[in-house]
Please model this.
Amino acid sequence: MAKVVFPDHLLATTQGTHELETFAENFRELLLQLDERWPGCAERLAKCAVAIDGQIYQDAFLEPLQADSEVFFMQRIEGG
Amino acid sequence: MTKVQVAASINGEAVEFLCEPQETLLDVLRGTLGKTGTKEGCGTGDCGACSVLIDGRLVCSCLMLAAEAQDVEVTTIEGIATDDGLHPIQQKFLEHAALQCGICTPGFIVATKALLDKNPNPDEETIRYWLAGNLCRCTGYDKIIRAVQDAASELAYEA
Amino acid sequence: MAEAVDYKVIGSRPIRPDGVDKVTGRAQFGADHNLPNMIYGRVLRSPHAHARIKSVDVSKALAMKGVLSAICGADFPGAQHGEVGGEGGGDVADVAKNVMARDKVLYHGHPVAAVAASSVQIAEAALEAIEVEYEVLAPVLDLDLAMAPDAPLLDEKCFTKNLPEPPDKPSNIAAVMNLKRGNVEEGFEQADVIVEGEYRIPMAHQGYIEPHACIATTNEAGQATVWCCTQGHFEFRAMTSKILDMNIADLKFVASEIGGGFGGKTVVYLEPVAVLLSQRSRRPVKMVMSREEVFRATGPAAGTHCKIKVGAKKDGTITAATAWLAYEAGAFAGAPMGPGAMSVFAPYDLENFDVQAFDVLVNKPKVAAYRAPGAPQSMHAMESTLDELARELNMDPIDLRLKNAADEGTQAPYGPKFPVIGLRACLEAAKQHPNYTSPVPEGAGRGVAVGFWFNVGMQSSAEVHLNENGTVTIIEGNPDIGGSRASMALMAAETLGVEYNDVRVLVGDTESTGFSNVTGGSRTTFATGMAVIQACEDIITQCKARAAATWGVDEDQVEWLDGQAVPAPGVNAELKPLSLADIAGNAARTGGPLLGRASLNAQGAGAGFSVNLADAAVDSETGKVDVLSFTAIQDAGKAIHPAYVEGQLQGGAAQGIGWALNEEYIFNADGVMENAGFLDYRIPVASDLPMIDTVIIEVPNPSHPYGVRGVGETPIVAPLATMANAIRSATGVRISDLPLSPPRILDALERA
Model:
């Protein structure tokens, strides 16, 4: 099961859920699942960066998820 | 206000121009004369980006009225290279990667020329204090100093 | 996959392709561009730090001879909402209001109106004829007072974001962030030693030597062209299109050469104003900021108030750490408190931590990025506290960090596990460096600190054109701030197998090349480099196909070696290799011109860690600090052009040293900056600094074909604490607030 972790500042969006486990083929499918669970959250989550198995993506979409992937939502970074 | 008529020599070329009494030499160089190599970083004589030579003397052109250029020899960055190519100072700045964004570079090159014309063999401290009037925000000055040292050696070798 | 390789050209130090124009004064920077028939724009700025705008009347200005247009906030389309991008997640509406105030002015210098006239003098006179009625309000200038529940509010509609329960009262705290792991109470109980520190850092400016400048020209078809100095012309185009409600397709942005940015030129200030003035006057409008305007009204770095608490065992293992980090956002939300919070403990493998961060509105200019935004401030606090911890434990400060250092597989404070990183390598290099093993000079003190930045990838596009003579022209979309053209040429030459001098690099405007995100975020060599490499690989594939056609063999029987198509082993060895010139010469017959391209959203940016060392002597009579030596050690993954990598390390070090020792925004009680010039906003000059020693560590980033990690931002992070720790060593006194300027040092020495 892929482990999905939300930082504290997204807890309002995830109705207090900090962590969950689920199956999803890729990030897009994960977002659809989350949006079903918490309708409307996908819009907010799509604005986040997400780290999948240690690799940070500013704009994740079709990135595949493995059976034991770790997914962390985080704030986007641009830098200067 | 009546404009002032000025006749000067700029990079060895006789030039005549009209300017407002309050215009600085920097304004005229960059505006009227189209020589944009000399830069404006602050307009108050603090950054050295507008450095030119007036009769061989290092001056912030933003602190000099254009009208004061009557009968003087002005050297700008455009006058540093010659028909033979880049001046050794310019060449060394390139070789030492002594520029990153390049905005301060014309000022530094002119200031360095003034230094080496006066003191062909300056030590590191002398170079740093001479160039203290030229601000650079990109390089931390290290490679600039090395370029100046190398240019000094090169010029001494050529002399 | 990057392996230890002997590269042909990567790692060499050739002269940059744009160098000759930059040492002769030919290169065109933002204010160097002029257009026929142009007029000059100037901005009227608020004299108050906080006020309601009751009315703006530009009619008298417009009536003056020589004035061709005059505008104010009401002339802008209703601000649209949308993401601007970047850490702050700032709304486009905020950027639009920052470009020109609507109902309120929120800092001294906030634009209120603008005119365009036939000369700068007439424009300046016209500003004086504009009548603005203000209802002056008390400014909120102190970070802590701004956070208090009863503070006067900058924005009555601002409700703190990210709280567990939505708040019922507005606040100057625009947002909070909390990162935690484990149980800090238990962690502190396990500690043998606990050290706390409280630190304040002032607002500081990026200090680029080139003021913002642009020239905008428009036509009756609604099209506009803007030349400007910018870190990202595509992003400027996007912002301008949103602020002016214009079709992106009608906006062309051309990036001039840029005289420094460091994050401060990733946001628009003048450009939408110039376009609107040009539309109204039907003339090209040139606008150049004065140095004073740059200080007062662009985007400095956030000032902060930080509190750190660290607990450790006798052997140096950190058992718990907490951080309370408040950042000034300035007039609108968007302080980099997120990255500050994520980076503060990033170098360390911690079981228990708790970070609270705050984005706080104050009546100061809206902050923008300044290299590694947020990290210098929070990490100064942590690295200073670790220095005290090392003293308490009687432990070498590098050993303390080695004891807790993050490594491959360590879970970063923001969640994911680190891939391979170079922190340990930097720490080991520091420990063995002569500048660390040598005795500290008499009367001086030595300081150490660690730096970090995430680095990003983001979007880049590149094209490769094969010229008829076999030379190659690369077109990409990243303004060249620090030698990136040279790095692109090196990566292209390496990939193609040709000479560096056979490659040209061009930075295209928004109509001539594909989309690229800013030059910033330490991403150019990494992401745009990746696009250039892939575009070269694309053209190699095409060249091999052309060679196959020329030889009459199948494509899979052709290989590419040292810049030439060669027959694969086993295929007809009589076939002579075909160079790029050969292939180009036959291009018309084999299918036409050869053009390679790539566009990507680069993934896998590798984090950059650093360690800095400094020796400093303090004059106890004057408080002056002499920086006797400074060493910047940083993991670059792979240095494409080592001289420009060294340049980033040295430049960032100088900025960090300046911020540590002298730089600060000094505001009076009315919120007016008192030192808005280079005389009194004191950045380092050549006589302030020694040679800056550098060590480039190379722990290759597996995600980049040549192992590149971004290097541009990390360098500014460690110097703040490095200097603070050196001065602590030199004087025996911990001075927690920056800058460590002579008056502060003398005061601290006196009180000690």
Remarks:
- Chain C touches chain B through 59 residues (CB under 8 Å).
- The longest helix of chain C spans residues 524-551.
- Residues 19-26+458-592 of chain C form a domain with the Aldehyde Oxidoreductase; domain 4 fold (CATH 3.30.365.10).
